[in-house]
Protein backbone atom coordinates (compact mmCIF):
# COMPACT_ATOMS: atom_id res chain seq x y z
CA UNK A 1 0.00 0.00 0.00
CA UNK A 2 1.29 3.44 -0.91
CA UNK A 3 2.20 5.81 1.90
CA UNK A 4 0.30 9.07 2.30
CA UNK A 5 3.21 11.07 0.88
CA UNK A 6 3.43 8.73 -2.13
CA UNK A 7 -0.27 9.35 -2.82
CA UNK A 8 0.34 13.07 -2.54
CA UNK A 9 3.21 12.92 -5.02
CA UNK A 10 1.04 10.88 -7.40
CA UNK A 11 -1.47 13.73 -7.48
CA UNK A 12 1.24 16.37 -7.66
CA UNK A 13 2.84 14.60 -10.62
CA UNK A 14 -0.51 14.60 -12.46
CA UNK A 15 -1.19 18.25 -11.64
CA UNK A 16 2.27 19.43 -12.69
CA UNK A 17 1.86 17.55 -16.00
CA UNK A 18 -1.13 19.80 -16.76
CA UNK A 19 0.27 22.93 -18.39
CA UNK A 20 -1.87 25.59 -16.72
CA UNK A 21 0.51 28.47 -17.49
CA UNK A 22 -1.16 31.86 -17.25
CA UNK A 23 -0.78 33.30 -19.81
CA UNK A 24 -1.94 31.74 -22.10
CA UNK A 25 -4.37 30.08 -19.65
CA UNK A 26 -5.33 27.15 -21.89
CA UNK A 27 -6.94 25.37 -18.96
CA UNK A 28 -9.36 23.23 -20.96
CA UNK A 29 -6.57 21.90 -23.21
CA UNK A 30 -4.20 21.28 -20.29
CA UNK A 31 -5.87 18.07 -19.13
CA UNK A 32 -6.58 19.48 -15.66
CA UNK A 33 -10.36 19.21 -15.89
CA UNK A 34 -10.11 15.70 -17.36
CA UNK A 35 -7.86 14.59 -14.52
CA UNK A 36 -10.18 15.86 -11.80
CA UNK A 37 -13.18 14.30 -13.54
CA UNK A 38 -11.33 10.98 -13.78
CA UNK A 39 -11.06 10.63 -9.98
CA UNK A 40 -13.98 8.38 -9.05
CA UNK A 41 -14.19 9.64 -5.47
CA UNK A 42 -14.76 13.24 -6.61
CA UNK A 43 -17.94 14.91 -7.83
CA UNK A 44 -16.52 18.24 -8.97
CA UNK A 45 -18.86 21.10 -9.74
CA UNK A 46 -17.19 23.00 -12.57
CA UNK A 47 -18.16 26.52 -13.60
CA UNK A 48 -16.76 27.86 -16.88
CA UNK A 49 -16.44 31.64 -16.56
CA UNK A 50 -14.88 32.02 -19.98
CA UNK A 51 -11.36 32.87 -21.16
CA UNK A 52 -9.81 29.97 -19.25
CA UNK A 53 -11.30 30.92 -15.90
CA UNK A 54 -12.81 27.90 -14.14
CA UNK A 55 -14.13 27.44 -10.63
CA UNK A 56 -14.02 23.81 -9.51
CA UNK A 57 -15.82 23.17 -6.24
CA UNK A 58 -15.34 19.93 -4.31
CA UNK A 59 -17.75 19.65 -1.42
CA UNK A 60 -19.07 16.98 0.90
CA UNK A 61 -20.95 17.12 4.21
CA UNK A 62 -21.34 20.37 6.12
CA UNK A 63 -17.83 21.84 6.29
CA UNK A 64 -16.98 24.77 8.52
CA UNK A 65 -14.01 26.01 6.49
CA UNK A 66 -13.39 26.55 2.78
CA UNK A 67 -9.99 25.78 1.27
CA UNK A 68 -9.05 27.72 -1.87
CA UNK A 69 -6.16 26.72 -4.16
CA UNK A 70 -5.34 28.35 -7.50
CA UNK A 71 -4.15 25.84 -10.09
CA UNK A 72 -2.80 28.23 -12.71
CA UNK A 73 0.93 28.96 -12.79
CA UNK A 74 3.26 31.55 -14.23
CA UNK A 75 4.90 30.59 -17.57
CA UNK A 76 7.93 28.30 -17.26
CA UNK A 77 10.55 30.75 -18.52
CA UNK A 78 14.19 29.87 -19.17
CA UNK A 79 16.74 28.25 -16.89
CA UNK A 80 14.98 24.99 -15.96
CA UNK A 81 17.34 22.07 -15.41
CA UNK A 82 14.46 19.57 -15.67
CA UNK A 83 11.27 19.45 -17.72
CA UNK A 84 8.94 21.95 -15.95
CA UNK A 85 5.93 19.69 -16.52
CA UNK A 86 7.51 16.44 -15.32
CA UNK A 87 7.70 16.14 -11.55
CA UNK A 88 11.22 15.32 -10.38
CA UNK A 89 12.26 14.25 -6.87
CA UNK A 90 15.76 15.40 -5.91
CA UNK A 91 17.36 16.04 -2.53
CA UNK A 92 14.05 15.49 -0.71
CA UNK A 93 12.39 18.12 -2.87
CA UNK A 94 9.64 17.92 -5.50
CA UNK A 95 10.56 20.00 -8.56
CA UNK A 96 8.07 21.11 -11.20
CA UNK A 97 6.19 24.15 -12.44
CA UNK A 98 3.55 24.93 -9.82
CA UNK A 99 4.87 22.42 -7.27
CA UNK A 100 5.49 25.27 -4.84
CA UNK A 101 2.90 27.79 -6.10
CA UNK A 102 0.66 26.07 -5.27
CA UNK A 103 -0.21 22.65 -6.69
CA UNK A 104 1.46 21.00 -3.71
CA UNK A 105 -1.41 22.17 -1.53
CA UNK A 106 -3.96 20.87 -4.05
CA UNK A 107 -2.21 17.48 -4.06
CA UNK A 108 -2.42 17.34 -0.26
CA UNK A 109 -6.15 18.01 -0.27
CA UNK A 110 -6.82 15.49 -3.05
CA UNK A 111 -4.86 12.90 -1.07
CA UNK A 112 -6.97 13.43 2.03
CA UNK A 113 -10.18 13.20 0.00
CA UNK A 114 -8.96 9.99 -1.64
CA UNK A 115 -8.38 8.54 1.81
CA UNK A 116 -12.01 9.04 2.75
CA UNK A 117 -12.41 12.57 4.07
CA UNK A 118 -16.12 13.06 4.76
CA UNK A 119 -16.49 16.76 5.48
CA UNK A 120 -14.76 19.26 3.20
CA UNK A 121 -15.11 22.21 0.85
CA UNK A 122 -12.32 22.90 -1.63
CA UNK A 123 -12.43 25.57 -4.34
CA UNK A 124 -9.89 25.20 -7.13
CA UNK A 125 -9.58 28.35 -9.26
CA UNK A 126 -7.56 28.98 -12.41
CA UNK A 127 -6.87 32.69 -12.88
CA UNK A 128 -4.97 33.98 -9.83
CA UNK A 129 -1.79 34.61 -11.78
CA UNK A 130 -3.63 36.79 -14.32
CA UNK A 131 -4.11 39.63 -11.87
CA UNK A 132 -7.87 39.77 -12.44
CA UNK A 133 -9.28 37.34 -9.85
CA UNK A 134 -12.46 36.74 -11.82
CA UNK A 135 -12.83 33.27 -10.32
CA UNK A 136 -12.91 34.46 -6.72
CA UNK A 137 -15.05 37.50 -7.49
CA UNK A 138 -17.65 35.34 -9.26
CA UNK A 139 -17.58 32.77 -6.47
CA UNK A 140 -18.20 35.49 -3.90
CA UNK A 141 -21.30 36.50 -5.86
CA UNK A 142 -22.82 33.18 -4.77
CA UNK A 143 -22.65 34.48 -1.17
CA UNK A 144 -20.76 31.52 0.36
CA UNK A 145 -21.21 31.02 4.09
CA UNK A 146 -18.23 29.62 5.98
CA UNK A 147 -16.72 30.26 9.39
CA UNK A 148 -13.44 30.96 7.65
CA UNK A 149 -11.41 30.55 4.45
CA UNK A 150 -7.89 29.13 4.13
CA UNK A 151 -6.29 30.44 0.93
CA UNK A 152 -3.34 28.33 -0.15
CA UNK A 153 -0.08 30.07 -1.02
CA UNK A 154 3.52 29.15 -0.12
CA UNK A 155 3.88 30.26 3.52
CA UNK A 156 6.17 27.55 4.92
CA UNK A 157 3.08 26.10 6.63
CA UNK A 158 2.60 29.24 8.73
CA UNK A 159 -0.68 31.10 9.11
CA UNK A 160 -0.51 34.52 7.42
CA UNK A 161 -2.98 37.10 8.69
CA UNK A 162 -1.55 40.30 7.21
CA UNK A 163 -0.24 41.40 3.83
CA UNK A 164 -0.15 44.43 1.58
CA UNK A 165 -2.86 45.41 -0.88
CA UNK A 166 -2.26 46.17 -4.53
CA UNK A 167 -3.07 49.10 -6.79
CA UNK A 168 -1.94 49.60 -10.39
CA UNK A 169 -2.54 52.39 -12.86
CA UNK A 170 -1.32 54.22 -15.95
CA UNK A 171 -0.34 57.88 -16.09
CA UNK A 172 -0.37 59.17 -19.67
CA UNK A 173 1.10 62.44 -20.98
CA UNK A 174 0.65 64.32 -24.23
CA UNK A 175 3.00 66.77 -25.93
CA UNK A 176 3.35 68.71 -29.16
CA UNK A 177 5.32 66.95 -31.85
CA UNK A 178 8.02 68.68 -33.89
CA UNK A 179 11.73 68.77 -34.69
CA UNK A 180 13.93 68.34 -31.66
CA UNK A 181 16.10 71.30 -32.72
CA UNK A 182 13.35 73.62 -31.49
CA UNK A 183 14.00 74.78 -27.90
CA UNK A 184 10.33 74.31 -27.03
CA UNK A 185 11.05 70.58 -26.79
CA UNK A 186 12.10 71.25 -23.20
CA UNK A 187 8.48 72.04 -22.31
CA UNK A 188 6.46 70.32 -25.03
CA UNK A 189 8.01 66.83 -24.97
CA UNK A 190 5.64 64.30 -23.38
CA UNK A 191 8.57 62.20 -22.14
CA UNK A 192 10.00 65.20 -20.31
CA UNK A 193 6.65 65.73 -18.57
CA UNK A 194 6.56 62.04 -17.66
CA UNK A 195 10.10 62.20 -16.25
CA UNK A 196 9.25 65.13 -13.99
CA UNK A 197 6.12 63.33 -12.76
CA UNK A 198 8.01 60.11 -12.06
CA UNK A 199 10.64 61.94 -10.02
CA UNK A 200 7.98 63.72 -7.96
CA UNK A 201 5.99 60.49 -7.48
CA UNK A 202 9.05 58.63 -6.15
CA UNK A 203 9.77 61.41 -3.68
CA UNK A 204 6.11 61.44 -2.57
CA UNK A 205 6.14 57.67 -2.05
CA UNK A 206 9.07 58.04 0.36
CA UNK A 207 6.93 60.26 2.59
CA UNK A 208 5.22 57.06 3.82
CA UNK A 209 8.47 55.45 5.00
CA UNK A 210 7.69 56.01 8.69
CA UNK A 211 4.52 53.87 8.52
CA UNK A 212 4.99 50.17 9.22
CA UNK A 213 3.35 46.94 10.38
CA UNK A 214 5.81 44.38 11.74
CA UNK A 215 8.57 43.97 9.15
CA UNK A 216 6.54 45.75 6.44
CA UNK A 217 7.85 49.28 6.07
CA UNK A 218 6.35 52.20 4.21
CA UNK A 219 4.80 52.14 0.77
CA UNK A 220 6.08 49.66 -1.83
CA UNK A 221 6.02 51.78 -5.01
CA UNK A 222 7.22 50.73 -8.45
CA UNK A 223 7.45 52.28 -11.91
CA UNK A 224 6.97 49.22 -14.09
CA UNK A 225 6.73 50.13 -17.78
CA UNK A 226 7.50 53.36 -19.66
CA UNK A 227 6.53 53.88 -23.30
CA UNK A 228 6.60 56.85 -25.65
CA UNK A 229 8.37 58.73 -28.40
CA UNK A 230 9.57 57.74 -31.86
CA UNK A 231 13.25 58.75 -32.26
CA UNK A 232 15.79 61.19 -30.81
CA UNK A 233 15.15 64.01 -33.29
CA UNK A 234 11.37 64.09 -32.87
CA UNK A 235 9.62 65.78 -29.94
CA UNK A 236 7.53 63.06 -28.32
CA UNK A 237 3.80 63.80 -28.51
CA UNK A 238 2.81 60.97 -26.15
CA UNK A 239 4.26 58.96 -23.29
CA UNK A 240 2.91 56.78 -20.51
CA UNK A 241 4.09 55.00 -17.39
CA UNK A 242 2.46 51.95 -15.80
CA UNK A 243 3.06 51.94 -12.08
CA UNK A 244 1.90 50.12 -8.99
CA UNK A 245 2.03 50.41 -5.24
CA UNK A 246 1.36 48.04 -2.36
CA UNK A 247 -0.36 49.79 0.57
CA UNK A 248 -0.21 48.52 4.13
CA UNK A 249 -3.46 47.60 5.88
CA UNK A 250 -4.99 50.87 7.01
CA UNK A 251 -3.19 53.07 4.48
CA UNK A 252 -5.59 55.21 2.46
CA UNK A 253 -5.34 54.61 -1.30
CA UNK A 254 -6.95 58.00 -1.92
CA UNK A 255 -4.30 59.73 0.18
CA UNK A 256 -1.53 57.92 -1.72
CA UNK A 257 -2.99 58.82 -5.12
CA UNK A 258 -3.28 62.44 -4.04
CA UNK A 259 0.30 62.44 -2.79
CA UNK A 260 1.74 61.16 -6.08
CA UNK A 261 -0.54 63.56 -7.99
CA UNK A 262 -2.33 61.21 -10.35
CA UNK A 263 -5.12 63.75 -10.85
CA UNK A 264 -2.82 66.42 -12.21
CA UNK A 265 -4.29 69.82 -12.98
CA UNK A 266 -2.26 69.63 -16.19
CA UNK A 267 -4.87 68.86 -18.86
CA UNK A 268 -2.16 67.12 -20.87
CA UNK A 269 -1.95 64.30 -18.31
CA UNK A 270 -4.55 61.67 -17.48
CA UNK A 271 -4.73 58.74 -15.09
CA UNK A 272 -6.36 55.35 -15.69
CA UNK A 273 -6.68 52.89 -12.78
CA UNK A 274 -5.77 49.24 -13.32
CA UNK A 275 -6.01 46.27 -10.95
CA UNK A 276 -7.14 47.22 -7.47
CA UNK A 277 -7.35 44.88 -4.48
CA UNK A 278 -7.41 45.37 -0.72
CA UNK A 279 -4.83 44.46 1.86
CA UNK A 280 -5.33 41.67 4.40
CA UNK A 281 -7.29 42.07 6.57
CA UNK A 282 -9.47 44.34 4.46
CA UNK A 283 -11.09 45.87 7.54
CA UNK A 284 -7.85 46.15 9.49
CA UNK A 285 -9.03 43.74 12.22
CA UNK A 286 -5.93 41.63 12.82
CA UNK A 287 -7.14 40.18 16.12
CA UNK A 288 -9.96 38.18 14.51
CA UNK A 289 -7.57 36.51 12.04
CA UNK A 290 -4.94 35.87 14.71
CA UNK A 291 -7.62 34.16 16.79
CA UNK A 292 -8.55 32.04 13.73
CA UNK A 293 -4.90 30.96 13.36
CA UNK A 294 -4.82 30.06 17.05
CA UNK A 295 -8.10 28.14 16.82
CA UNK A 296 -6.77 26.12 13.87
CA UNK A 297 -3.60 25.28 15.78
CA UNK A 298 -1.29 27.00 13.29
CA UNK A 299 1.93 28.84 13.92
CA UNK A 300 1.55 32.56 13.21
CA UNK A 301 3.56 34.15 10.42
CA UNK A 302 4.85 37.69 10.39
CA UNK A 303 3.11 40.00 7.87
CA UNK A 304 4.23 39.33 4.28
CA UNK A 305 4.79 41.60 1.31
CA UNK A 306 3.12 39.51 -1.39
CA UNK A 307 -0.58 39.90 -2.20
CA UNK A 308 -3.11 37.05 -2.13
CA UNK A 309 -6.77 36.53 -2.92
CA UNK A 310 -7.45 36.02 0.79
CA UNK A 311 -8.00 39.78 0.89
CA UNK A 312 -10.96 39.43 -1.51
CA UNK A 313 -12.64 36.95 0.83
CA UNK A 314 -11.84 39.31 3.70
CA UNK A 315 -13.36 42.25 1.83
CA UNK A 316 -16.53 40.18 1.39
CA UNK A 317 -16.79 39.68 5.14
CA UNK A 318 -15.34 36.16 5.39
CA UNK A 319 -12.44 35.69 7.84
CA UNK A 320 -9.56 34.55 5.63
CA UNK A 321 -5.96 33.55 6.25
CA UNK A 322 -3.17 32.34 3.99
CA UNK A 323 -1.52 28.96 4.54
CA UNK A 324 0.33 26.39 2.50
CA UNK A 325 3.48 24.31 1.99
CA UNK A 326 6.45 25.81 0.19
CA UNK A 327 8.53 28.97 0.36
CA UNK A 328 7.49 32.01 -1.70
CA UNK A 329 11.19 32.49 -2.46
CA UNK A 330 11.09 29.31 -4.58
CA UNK A 331 8.05 30.39 -6.63
CA UNK A 332 7.97 32.21 -9.98
CA UNK A 333 11.45 31.05 -10.96
CA UNK A 334 13.20 28.16 -12.73
CA UNK A 335 13.50 24.86 -10.82
CA UNK A 336 10.55 25.71 -8.58
CA UNK A 337 10.28 23.18 -5.78
CA UNK A 338 8.67 22.25 -2.48
CA UNK A 339 10.29 20.27 0.33
CA UNK A 340 8.80 16.80 0.85
CA UNK A 341 8.88 17.43 4.61
CA UNK A 342 6.59 20.43 4.14
CA UNK A 343 4.12 18.38 2.08
CA UNK A 344 4.01 15.77 4.87
CA UNK A 345 3.50 18.48 7.48
CA UNK A 346 0.77 20.14 5.40
CA UNK A 347 -1.10 16.84 5.06
CA UNK A 348 -1.34 16.56 8.84
CA UNK A 349 -2.31 20.20 9.29
CA UNK A 350 -5.02 20.13 6.60
CA UNK A 351 -6.44 16.96 8.15
CA UNK A 352 -6.49 18.57 11.58
CA UNK A 353 -8.31 21.65 10.30
CA UNK A 354 -11.03 19.60 8.64
CA UNK A 355 -11.49 17.28 11.62
From TrEMBL:
<feature type="binding site">
    <location>
        <position position="101"/>
    </location>
    <ligand>
        <name>Co(2+)</name>
    </ligand>
</feature>
<dbReference type="Pfam" id="PF01546">
    <property type="entry name" value="Peptidase_M20"/>
</dbReference>
<dbReference type="InterPro" id="IPR050072">
    <property type="entry name" value="Peptidase_M20A"/>
</dbReference>
<feature type="binding site">
    <location>
        <position position="70"/>
    </location>
    <ligand>
        <name>Co(2+)</name>
    </ligand>
</feature>
<protein>
    <recommendedName>
        <fullName>N-acetyl-L-citrulline deacetylase</fullName>
        <ecNumber>3.5.1.-</ecNumber>
    </recommendedName>
</protein>
<dbReference type="Pfam" id="PF07687">
    <property type="entry name" value="M20_dimer"/>
</dbReference>
<dbReference type="InterPro" id="IPR043697">
    <property type="entry name" value="ACDase_ArgE'-like"/>
</dbReference>
<feature type="active site" description="Proton donor/acceptor">
    <location>
        <position position="128"/>
    </location>
</feature>
<comment type="pathway">
    <text>Amino-acid biosynthesis; L-arginine biosynthesis.</text>
</comment>
<comment type="function">
    <text>Catalyzes the deacetylation of N-acetyl-L-citrulline to produce L-citrulline. This is a step in an alternative arginine biosynthesis pathway.</text>
</comment>
<dbReference type="InterPro" id="IPR036264">
    <property type="entry name" value="Bact_exopeptidase_dim_dom"/>
</dbReference>
<feature type="binding site">
    <location>
        <position position="153"/>
    </location>
    <ligand>
        <name>Co(2+)</name>
    </ligand>
</feature>
<keyword id="KW-0378">Hydrolase</keyword>
<comment type="similarity">
    <text>Belongs to the peptidase M20A family. N-acetylcitrulline deacetylase subfamily.</text>
</comment>
<keyword id="KW-0170">Cobalt</keyword>
<keyword id="KW-0028">Amino-acid biosynthesis</keyword>
<keyword id="KW-0055">Arginine biosynthesis</keyword>
<dbReference type="InterPro" id="IPR011650">
    <property type="entry name" value="Peptidase_M20_dimer"/>
</dbReference>
<dbReference type="InterPro" id="IPR002933">
    <property type="entry name" value="Peptidase_M20"/>
</dbReference>
<dbReference type="GO" id="GO:0008777">
    <property type="term" value="F:acetylornithine deacetylase activity"/>
</dbReference>
<dbReference type="GO" id="GO:0006526">
    <property type="term" value="P:L-arginine biosynthetic process"/>
</dbReference>
<dbReference type="GO" id="GO:0050897">
    <property type="term" value="F:cobalt ion binding"/>
</dbReference>
<feature type="domain" description="Peptidase M20 dimerisation">
    <location>
        <begin position="163"/>
        <end position="262"/>
    </location>
</feature>
<keyword id="KW-0479">Metal-binding</keyword>
